[in-house]
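We were asked to recover a plausible sequence for a given structure. The inputs and outputs are reproduced exactly as logged, with field labels preserved.

PROBLEM: sequence recovery
POSITIONS: 634
GIVEN STRUCTURE:
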């Protein structure tokens, strides 16, 4: 169709169209990479326009004008999210920030709590039926134009046509301006690839095949996407599509096949990236763009089973409070989609959230895991909403944990040089016991190679990993769950108490080379419980003493033999040539485990106690145990 013949009365130049705006108007501008740059420039250059209030999320073009005194006299900016390009102006007080959940912004327009006189939007060329597409910016743009008194649209042949709730008929637009120009591009900054690599590795450990992902705003969430390359059949329900997701589509890692809500479709609200991304989503039925009141509604999010939310933060305090929108009193970004997706993922069947952040800022001089949020910092996410927190030093699980447990979880993923001080402050605030020992100051990334998994005959999968200080509570519960006989066979006495002091003494002696303890974990009702503990402790330069205890309902399933093989491998890597073990003569099952692996073990008996001396070189030809674990990618 000849679009100018369809509605010739609506076509104007940009200068003519923006002249329709009245002084004192409240003007909405579409989001980020979808903003109509040509219309914005024309509006700013029309010096007759005065006292204009602008509402926008993720502003770009206006960043070129905010340092001009004449602009600030004529325009006031109210932004729902502070982009990197306009951050300096925010720090200088030149813009006004509106804290709001993305899911609720459309309702602010609909209810006229935020009234809109004009909407400046950008659309694609219309099809033969007169329908244009909002393309890369549906989000709050759909609601902004629906509830503005007047709509001015820049028609840009370069705007892609996207599927979903993005279509706008020419009849819905008051004034049309044809202008061909490149869309705004957003190129993520890869500030520290090594930190992103390590965080990406830990994130990948929590994501199972078939999960549906949400990836939040920011450079870090985008930077960790390459570390999902080995996953299968992932789905996507997210606010923003970025270039980092394209390889996952091309490699058929994101297929959306196993989604419970809108299977086969990647649900999103906007795109921010390069021309490659815009061409990829153009007329691509894989992508289903909806407005923010749908994409960000926690109830809609929760309809996705196994929804995993990945977002970032500026800092996290020892109790789990998250700040993501301000640096002290300086507004830095915005609440955005984090809270919506944290709450939606918590309601999702099998879903959970991840907050990922580097352990330090300012070239390593400042910890991002902090005793308390900085003065003036906003609590974007409460301590009750946080589940997993990840830095380049590991994973902290906070959901359902007490303050003392959170302190230990978070301090052990802080940068090693800050761990002791964090625990020290926690003691002064009575968050933890006064005698609590701080986590090791070593970088324990090598422990990832000591993780493995075993599938039992009954189909249950047990995960094994080294014992950590944050396991104190679970460790204590494990021992109290054992029957008296199991405790007697392990400790040679009817041990009744496993107090804080006793448990702390155990893990405090673990240095992961001379003294190693592994725990076995199984999934129960959405959380993991310890079902076995295996340890070795240095006896001499070449030999270590080994001991096990397995919960009764997991005995006679091959767990102890498996753990013996894992400890054998670890001890050998650390320079030991053999094990010793003290076993009660009545403990026939444990004697069988040792003799099966070390049939030539030397056996010494004194009364009811048997000592076995086992050489690694004489182990039965079982080889290293079969394990399943992911190594840090090169």
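RECOVERED SEQUENCE:
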């Amino acid at each position: 169709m000849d679009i100018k013949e369809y509605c010739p009365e609506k076509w104007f130049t940009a200068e003519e169209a923006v002249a329709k705006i009245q002084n004192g108007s409240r003007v909405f501008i579409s989001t980020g990479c979808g903003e109509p740059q040509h219309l914005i420039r024309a509006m700013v250059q029309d010096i007759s326009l005065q006292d204009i209030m602008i509402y926008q999320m993720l502003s770009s073009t206006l960043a070129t004008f905010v340092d001009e005194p004449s602009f600030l006299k004529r325009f006031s900016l109210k932004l729902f999210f502070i982009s990197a390009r306009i951050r300096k102006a925010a720090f200088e007080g030149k813009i006004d920030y509106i804290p709001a959940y993305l899911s609720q912004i459309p309702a602010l327009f609909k209810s006229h709590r935020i009234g809109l006189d004009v909407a400046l939007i950008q659309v694609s060329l219309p099809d033969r039926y007169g329908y244009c597409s909002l393309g890369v910016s549906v989000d709050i743009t759909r609601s902004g134009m629906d509830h503005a008194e007047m709509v001015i649209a820049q028609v840009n042949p370069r705007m892609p046509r996207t599927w979903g709730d993005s279509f706008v008929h020419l009849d819905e637009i008051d004034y049309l301006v044809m202008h061909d120009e490149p869309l705004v591009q957003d190129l993520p900054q890869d500030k520290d690839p090594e930190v992103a690599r390590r965080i990406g590795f830990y994130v990948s450990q929590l994501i199972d095949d078939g999960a549906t992902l949400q990836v939040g705003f920011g450079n870090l969430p985008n930077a960790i996407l390459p570390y999902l390359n080995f996953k299968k059949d992932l789905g996507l329900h997210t606010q923003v599509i970025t270039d980092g997701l394209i390889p996952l589509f091309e490699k058929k890692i994101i297929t959306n096949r196993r989604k419970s809500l809108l299977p086969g479709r990647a649900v999103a609200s906007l795109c921010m990236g390069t021309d490659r991304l815009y061409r990829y989503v153009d007329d691509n039925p894989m992508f289903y763009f909806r407005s923010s009141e749908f994409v960000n509604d926690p109830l809609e999010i929760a309809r996705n089973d196994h929804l995993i939310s990945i977002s970032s933060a500026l800092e996290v305090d020892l109790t789990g409070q998250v700040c993501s929108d301000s640096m002290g009193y300086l507004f830095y970004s915005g609440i955005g989609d984090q809270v919506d997706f944290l709450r939606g993922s918590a309601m999702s069947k099998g879903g959970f959230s991840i907050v990922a952040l580097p352990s330090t800022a300012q070239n390593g001089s400042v910890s991002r895991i902090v005793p308390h949020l900085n003065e003036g910092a906003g609590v974007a996410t409460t301590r009750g909403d946080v589940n997993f927190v990840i830095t380049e030093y590991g994973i902290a699980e906070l959901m359902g944990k007490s303050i003392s447990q959170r302190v230990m979880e978070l301090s052990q993923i802080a940068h090693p040089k800050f761990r002791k001080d964090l625990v020290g402050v926690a003691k002064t605030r009575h968050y933890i016991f006064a005698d609590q020992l701080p986590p090791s100051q070593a970088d324990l990334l090598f422990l990832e190679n000591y993780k493995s998994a075993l599938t039992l005959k009954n189909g249950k999968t047990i995960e094994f990993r080294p014992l950590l200080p944050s396991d104190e509570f679970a460790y204590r519960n494990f021992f109290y769950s054992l029957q008296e006989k199991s405790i007697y066979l392990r400790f040679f006495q009817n041990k009744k108490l496993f107090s804080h002091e006793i448990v702390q003494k155990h893990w405090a002696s673990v240095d992961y080379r001379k003294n190693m303890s592994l725990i076995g974990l199984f999934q129960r009702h959405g959380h993991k419980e310890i079902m076995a503990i295996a340890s070795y402790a240095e006896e001499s330069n070449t030999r270590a003493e080994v001991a096990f205890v397995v919960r009764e309902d997991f005995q006679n399933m091959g767990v102890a033999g498996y753990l013996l093989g894992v400890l054998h491998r670890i001890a050998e890597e650390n320079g030991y040539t053999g094990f010793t073990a003290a076993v009660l003569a009545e403990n026939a099952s444990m004697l069988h485990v040792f003799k099966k692996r070390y049939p030539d073990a030397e056996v010494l008996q004194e009364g009811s106690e048997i000592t076995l001396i086992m050489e690694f070189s004489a182990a039965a030809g079982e080889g290293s145990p079969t394990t399943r674990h992911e190594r840090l990618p090169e």
